[in-house]
Amino acid sequence: MNIITANVGQGALAIVRHQAEAIIVDARVPPADDDTVAYVKQLLALSLKGHSVKGLILTGFDNDHTEIVGTSIVLRKYRPDWVMYPTYYKDSAEAKRVFALINDEVRARAGSNNPLRTVSVRLDKLANRKLLGLSSKFEFELFSPHIEDMDCSNNCSIVLKLTGIGHRGFSYLITGDTENPRWDTIEEYFGDSLKSHVLAAPHHGSRNATHPKALVRIAPHTVLISAGVDSQYGHPHPQALRVYASVAKHVFSTNMEGGVSLLTQPGATDLTTTLITSINADQAA
């Protein structure tokens, strides 16, 4: 199993691969006049070669996680079996375009040998937090969202543990933009079930999404932060970095060294993360 945290500036896109299957998490592709567009397209092509893309997880509908260009590339070129998103309505032009695209793809692929299934998730609407029938190589355990805490779009984000099954698999906690008020409840209800080898830092390393008690429960070996170089929001926040460093063995961010992608995978004895400064077919393969 390995995770590629793509350098998409101030946004999020990750590729999780295990035993020839892949899950894509979020779908941010920068504006068309940004050189990163070509980089992301090439990274996707190299990373997904020889892999079946089982699903696309959209952790939320703010356009730094989900926007029309990235979602269209994933759905139309890589044709996942399903797309997962939180059950809530985001009243924005970009979210409406993304939903229209998803509905168009569902209709276009209906009756084919590769129909697109939509998986809308919210804890209070599910009988079981363990989501079944999505992959034979991964397990899915949902922690958020829940109707009681959906007070803003950030707290409507999906929080989900993705675990690779079998040899060289590990656990990866996906967190979207979930903020501390929601983490209060998640930590209280789920406690040590949150424990994961790798944490995708909530809200790009924001201070208001860095929850010390939840982090103790998660006990990550590695924290991965997706943040832009010279972020206008100051991500990752220095206080967040200090907290992460106190609980994790390693902390990496895509805004390091002028902008990098991150490849996280099992090494000989431990998880390792390699900084990818340019497209390298051997690294992405």
Overview of the structural elements:
With 285 residues, the protein is an alpha/beta fold. The protein contains 7 helices and 15 strands. The protein has helices at 36-48, 68-78, 93-109, 180-190, 212-218, 238-247, 281-284; strands spanning 2-5, 14-18, 21-25, 52-57, 82-86, 117-121, 130-131, 138-144, 159-164, 171-174, 198-200, 222-225, 250-253, 261-266, 271-276. It is globular. The mean pLDDT is 94.
Task: Give structural attributes.
285 residues; alpha/beta; eight-stranded mixed beta sheet; seven-stranded mixed beta sheet; 7 helices; 15 strands
Gist of the model:
The chain has helices at 36-48, 68-78, 93-109, 180-190, 212-218, 238-247, 281-284, and strands spanning 2-5, 14-18, 21-25, 52-57, 82-86, 117-121, 130-131, 138-144, 159-164, 171-174, 198-200, 222-225, 250-253, 261-266, 271-276.
Blueprint of the fold:
Blueprint: E1 2-5, E2 14-18, E3 21-25, H1 36-48, E4 52-57, H2 68-78, E5 82-86, H3 93-109, E6 117-121, E7 130-131, E8 138-144, E9 159-164, E10 171-174, H4 180-190, E11 198-200, H5 212-218, E12 222-225, H6 238-247, E13 250-253, E14 261-266, E15 271-276, H7 281-284
Parallel strand pairs: 3-4, 4-5, 5-6, 10-11, 11-12, 12-13
Antiparallel strand pairs: 1-2, 1-14, 2-3, 7-8, 8-9, 9-10, 14-15
Helix pairs in contact: 2-3
